[in-house]
Amino acid sequence: MFTSEFDPVYCIEGGILQLKCTVYSETIDVHWFKGDMEIKENENMHIIWADKTHLITFKHAKVSDSGQYWIVAGKVQKQLEVTVQALFKRQLKNITIMEGLEACFECEVGKPYPGVWYKDGKELKSSSNIKIDAIQESVHKLTIFQTALDHKGKYEIKINDILSGADLDIKMSEHDRSIFLEAAKNGTAVRYNIRIILVGKQRVGKTCLLRRLMNEGIEGVESTDGINIEVKKCKINLQTKEWIFTKGNESPLNEYPNDQYADCGFWDFAGQKEFYATHQTFLSRNAIYLLVVDVSEDFVMHTYNNMIENQFDKTGEYIDFWLDNIHCYTVNGTDESMILTNDLLNPPVIIIGTGMDKVQVIHLLTNVYVEQKIKQNQTSEKDTGKTKEGFERFINNKLLREHPKGKHLRKLCFLSNTKPSKDKKEFQILRNDIFERAKEIPKWGDNLPIRWIFLEKEIDRLTDNKEFVISYDKAKDLASKCSFSLEEITLELDSFLKYEHEIGNLIFFEDIKSYIILEPKWLVDVFKCFVAPFQFQNQFINMNEWSRLQSTGHLPKMLIEKLFTKVQVLNLTEIEAFAFEERNEDKTLALQILKEKKAFALEIMEKFDIIVKPITAEKNEEYYMPCMIEASGVDEILDTINVRNGQCSRTSWFGLQFNFLPPAFFNHILVTFLSKYSLSIVGKGRLAIYRGIGVFDIEASNCQKLLVCLSENTVAMQVWQFEKRDGLCYHEIRKYLIKTVDILRQKYRISIIYQCFLKCPDKIPPGIGERIYINDVQKKAQHHCPELDFQTVKDLRRCWFEVCLKSLRKFTNSKCKT
User: Fold this and answer.
1) Does the pLDDT value for residue 366 go beyond 50?
2) Angle at 67 between CA 66 and CA 72, to 5 degrees
3) pLDDT score, position 568
């Protein structure tokens, strides 16, 4: 009867399920059964036949459609096994969370499909507080960065007409506090906290200024290696505005009552450009920034906007750079706490001009020189050299103009660290200004449960004993001792830790919560091990591994262990580890904890994209550190990969031009591409990763290579084709770049604006001139290129925007030589 085979049938839920058979004669009747029931047509299922072929089609397969089917033809019957696999490999799960914390719904499907999210039946879209993300359309995520009561409800995702849902329950912080009030019969306490961050070029006097503000001497100050925050804390009397500094055997700071004194912590950032990629870890919206400049240096020069990465050197360029960087933390129009008035934005910035003693000398000499020139009619009276007034004009009239970043500036302050006034009154005035600015910060005067204050004191006790990192389990034990609710201890502890993280008291990440960094200096010391200018790494100069790190970015395990020796608490012998971990019963456990802390340190650097494990053909697990690779030009890479051999064709450039691109942001973009595409291999096994550049193989034959590079506040891409294939289109890569940038903007809550552009293929790198912006495409049917005789806009768009008939997946078998 039957002329077809009956192999088992597999299908994904929601997909089309077809069961088929053929018989040897058109006159034979065929009936379909599932179990004992004959299958009849309905809205979701159709039965058709044509000639000798019989077909049953389920438009949207269900898991319940799985089972044994029987096909009966005359007196002959055949069995067919059908399996419909559930679309959702992981369903959404209910979430209960404290108000203000981050909530993340996540599900995984067995086959890539787009999804649509809903809350209480209404479709959701991404916003400044909600991120919708899909990893290769298999893992779908919805993240609410800061939950509020109105986020409570039913969340669903519809994928291929299949729904998965879960509930979000928000626990009010006030409710939790009321529980504490009943138990402790005490109440809440007001918490005042000031976080002050010093930024600016190296050797302009940041560390000296910090010492002056802390009422310390400036003898023996050296260039800061990393971020120096050690013992730079004080208290401020809220009534008298007096700053309290402790020395020697004086009472510790934690003995001062929190409702009468403000906590003040200083963060002294290194000025070397190599550290800028790590600074993003510590920058905060809830801080006051002291932007320190040496007014005796040249400042009427280019600004950062005209400079390629890491090539700005003049005072004006540094001021421009840091104001742009700080301005990224203002999400205009969406965060009212960042907008004070029409004229002011948070976070506040005070520009401090140091070196006034040198300016005064220069000014006197310049006046004599100018008077001579005036007599000779060679200059004007306005040309007075480097003066306080000239610096103010430069800041207000040239650097800031009408740019909104100028709304962060509260004051220009001028002083000399080396030759202060007799009573050092200028530093007291600056302290008063800092205190007044602190009142503008959103976190100023927060009401906290008293048990949170108790837990803060327990943490202070640990840091006083040099215990800078603790496990999450130990934090739970401490919280229990401080009367945290046993039923909701994890929820409240996470809320407490997130708050302390935001104000800079500790470092806590919910996605890697095995350990908590109680003293940020511990993480600073880890960063200093790995990310430091070469002048601070003299002990490694003759190491082959260090040379390879500089040239290739490769970070082998042996070098990691060597670099960890710079952190005292990660460089302990067995006996020292046992002594340090006094609470442990045996040395083996102490060493295991030490090993876990090293792994935790590496996890943190991975989280901030400082180190990465790129995808390679060999699928190895080696770390790389792109920010430590010596700079290479795109021209040099073109020659290394033999792109100019006459057999390689290049697409037009597609890029995003930003109004400002923070140093760490390109690292985030590059690492995202490293997790999606395999790096190309050049030379003798070297991965094609460079400082600000990555070259990827985007199909199996290695004949198609994708270049992603950074240039002048721009991220640009180009594809190199070593085998001519007409009609290929890379619109999916273009969309991936844009989607990546938008997700990163939401993840790090920074405000940066970009324009999409196209550029002729032969320009290396894609400079600002001769770009065609996407908004202008309709205006320009043709485009003249100085390097080429002629280019049409259609030629530039073709490989990035038009969906072509040929697919890259079809070309995966042949190999080519590059």
Assistant:
1) no
2) 120
3) 65
Quick count: other Cβ atoms within 10 Å of Cβ 429?
A: 13
Question: pLDDT-derived band of residue 288, with 50, 70 and 90 as boundaries?
Answer: very high
The whole-number pLDDT of residue 341 equals: 52
**Ranges assigned E (strand) in 17-65:** 17-22, 30-34, 37-38, 45-50, 53-58
**Most confident listed range (268-272, 534-538, 577-581, 605-609):** 605-609
Q: What are phi and psi of 378, to 5 degrees?
A: -105, -5
For residue 113, pLDDT beyond 90: no
**How many C-beta atoms lie closer than 10 Å to residue 740's C-beta?**
17
Closest Cα partner for 514 from 424, 574, 421, 602?
Answer: 602
Rounded to 5°, the CA angle 545-616-814 comes to 135
Between the CA atoms of 27, 32, 37 and 41, what dihedral angle is there, to the nearest 10 degrees? Answer: -90
**CB-based contact 282:227 (threshold 8 Å):** yes
DSSP state of 464: H
- Looking only at the bridges linking them, the beta strands covering 130-135 and 714-721 are unpaired
Q: Which domains does the chain carry? A: 9-85 (2.60.40.10), 88-171 (2.60.40.10), 219-444 (3.40.50.300), 449-463+484-536+567-607 (no CATH), 631-810 (3.30.310.200)
Report the distance separating Cα 709 and Cα 473, nearest Å: 43
* Angle, vertex CA 493, rays to CA 175 and CA 166, nearest 5: 70
Contact between 116 and 78 under an 8 Å Cβ cutoff? The reply is no
Host H or E run for residue 169: strand 162-171
Are 606 and 530 within 8 A, CB to CB?
Answer: no
Residues 6+ apart with CB under 8 A from 774: 755, 756, 757, 758
Helix (H, G, I), strand (E, B) or coil at 555: strand
299 CA to centre of own chain? 31
Helices then strands, counting H and E runs in the chain, come out as 19, 44
Q: Return the percentage of the chain with pLDDT > 70, whole number.
A: 75
Q: Are 272 and 331 in contact (CB under 8 A)?
A: no
pLDDT at 555 over 90: no
Place of tokens 């159709």: 46
Output the six-digit token pair for 308: 């390629």
Q: Report whether pLDDT(705) > 70.
A: yes
φ, ψ of residue 160 to 5 degrees: the values are: 55, 40
Burial status of residue 815 (CB atoms within 10 A of its CB: 0-12, 13-18, 19 or more): exposed
* pTM, rounded to two decimals: 0.66
Q: Rounded distance, CA 229 to CA 518, Å?
A: 13
Tell me what pLDDT residue 791 has: 59
The pLDDT-based confidence of 344 (bands split at 50, 70, 90) is: confident
193-205 pLDDT per residue, tens: 888 988 888 778 8
One-letter amino acid of 735: K
Number of C-alpha atoms within 13 angstroms, CB side, residue 497?
A: 28
| Half-sphere exposure (Cβ direction) of 113: Cα atoms closer than 13 Å | 20
What is the rounded average pLDDT for all residues in the chain? 77
Question: CA-CA distance, 267 to 232, in Å (whole number)?
Answer: 8
